[in-house]
Amino acid sequence: MPETTIATLLERLRSRQARVGVIGLGYVGLPLAVEFARAGFHVTGFDVDAAKTNAINAGKSYIPDVPESDLSAAVAAGSLRATTDMHALGEMDAIDICVPTPLRKTRDPDLSYVVLAVEAVAATVKPGQLIILESTTYPGTTEEVVRPMLEEKGLEADVDFFLAFSPERVDPGNQRFTTKNIPKIVGGVGPASSEAASLLYGASVDTVVKVSSTRVAEMVKLLENTFRAVNIGLVNEIALMCHRMDIDVWEVIDAAKTKPFGFMPFYPGPGLGGHCIPIDPYYLSWKARQTGFECRFIELAGHINGSMPHYVVERVGDALNAARKSINGSRVHLIGVAYKRDVNDMRESPALDVLELLSKRGATASYSDPFVPTLEHGDQTLQSIDLATALASKPDCMVICTDHSEFDYDALVESGVFVVDTRNALKGRTADSIFRL
Ligand SMILES: NC(=O)c1ccc[n+]([C@@H]2O[C@H](COP(=O)([O-])OP(=O)(O)OC[C@H]3O[C@@H](n4cnc5c(N)ncnc54)[C@H](O)[C@@H]3O)[C@@H](O)[C@H]2O)c1
Fold it and tell me: What is the mean pLDDT of residues 194-201?
């Protein structure tokens, strides 16, 4: 029976008869669902948010990286639909779980979304199903948390059903590397699971990299994101150091990156943002602590990166000081509040910390961000102001938190308003009104 179970699944995947479910239709799940549909599978997206499932069924994309034409074509062709009805999970041959994995206030992993999604899968799990976790998480989650929940009714993983972990590596806003051409890491709980998961992804993405276990696959993702968090921490510390020594850190990085080997540029900024880099390393340090291991690099990088919004506010103080003004009572305008250039994602954005710190010091804050029309700040809702209008109102200081491409930086410099540039958006321009990070 198990022999035929895996053979049937592999055959359904090869022939594209397999029905694929994607749970969690956000920045990761929606592009993946569209890619599976493009590969020829019948895809059903599952989400608890009816606004998202309704939008998909109406052919509307709410993720900037998913062109509406691709989405609506898949929906019109009948190869993609979305639902909030989790009972339909039982009809799927393969299920990909892409739900959030945030931190609790204590910085411990919050697996509640994963647990809820796996409970829904477990309620209808059947022989021959392939289940893959994509959410970033600590090594051991698939084996220690997901597997026992799915095996509760007596089915055995890698024999009756198949289970794998495959981390998502998508970089929102990146035009060059997308779900399709970013190599996909796959680790199964056993050889049959690895084979089935590799076949599913092999049909939809250009390159599949098989690793020996789910734990390795989980760890790969955390190494990648910890690598970024630590290197950003290092370059932020170098930026603070360079400021003390009156050296332009941006010029240093630009020159250093001409080295063709052994160096990779990272850039300082107002702090970490997004759903990955500020969070994922703590999943790793939490798990390592269970074994008595202390992750010193992660803690130190977190400390430095977390201090950057304070440093930005210090630079605002420097700028205002030059005009014999204080933060208290000044009007400070933030330029760009999303966590990175040309995206609308506000999760963990350091601009929120900068805003909070400035308000606490008595500044009146406003902002411009074409991607973020409104912003909740304390009990207020701020509205984005067009940058030209903001310049005309002559605020006491501006802060470039996010260097969206469509801002008119020339007009900004010509206005003569003091500006703290945390992203080197004003590269090549010189004026007494510019205060670099
Ligand atoms: N955003 C990124 O750039 C990125 C990159 C790589 C990996 N990841 C990881 O991928 C995972 C998902 O991240 P995201 O950015 O797509 O999150 P997201 O918040 O954009 O999307 C998650 C979706 O899951 C839905 N959801 C939550 N609980 C659910 C449940 N029980 N059943 C069905 N749907 C549910 C939410 O409504 C939401 O639509 C996280 O683990 C994240 O760390 C994200």
Answer: 98
